[in-house]
Amino acid sequence: TTLAIALHEIPQEVGDFAIMMSAGLPASQAVCFNLLSGVLSLGSAMIACAVAESDANAENYFLCVASGSFVYLASTVITPELLEKVTFLHPVQMLLHLGGFCCGVLIMWVIAVTESHDECAH
Fold this sequence. Notes:
This protein is mainly alpha-helical.
């Protein structure tokens, strides 16, 4: 599991760095923001685990906020940016984009329904 997380996080952090660089941030600022994001995420996870231990329903709210945030980002930030770069979308391309978006939502739903909810409690 640790190896899988590391293999996922390395390209994730490189991608975040590339996005910040393409937004015009200098490399030093992009690295600082990337480190700050990681530290705040770790702190937030610790707080979330502590809250989830004391309130049985908190985890459900956290899951709703997290999945809603991903759907919001995909539908309002990422998809329009992708569509901006394409001058004309063939109907098949539009269906592929929509299908990919729907698959992502479906995958998140399946994970939410089937995932064990006791990681923070133990």
